[in-house]
Amino acid sequence: MNTESFSKGLVEIISSSDESAKVELEFLQVLQALNSNSDALDVFRNFGIPAELKIEAISKIFSKRVTSMTLDLVTLTISQGFADNLNEIEQLVSNFIAEKRGAALAKVVSAVSLDSTTQNSLKKALKTKLGRNVELSLKIDPDVIGGIKVSIGERTFDSLLSSKFSEIQTVLEGR
User: What integer is the mean pLDDT of 51-67?
Assistant: First the structure.
């Protein structure tokens, strides 16, 4: 089974849950946490470590923090050998869930947290541009000097200062 099919299956399971909103949020947060920890990724990607030990570790780390459904989905993902694909699964699941709700998923990177007014303004502007509802996936990147970057599918709207500086540097080097 490929990553895309597996992710679609996860979305169907999440959607069928009585606590789908909570499971969706928790599942994506767990994947984000695992993706951001290179030591954890190394352990879960290591084929020399039996799947049972990986599942035991996941259970110890998350069992008191997430619903049993979320824990089952994470252990299923790891036990089926998708530890190498956690980032891709996170993205695919986010996209499929947004699509299921008839929306596009906009991945937003900024230096600081966006307040609800800014988020709503951004959603409204993107809806006007795209002609459909938009859900935001927010990421704060401390390396960002300022500005914002929004990616929706293949389209990217980049107003990060670092990108502008890079453009200026390219122009200056070309002279």
Answer: 89
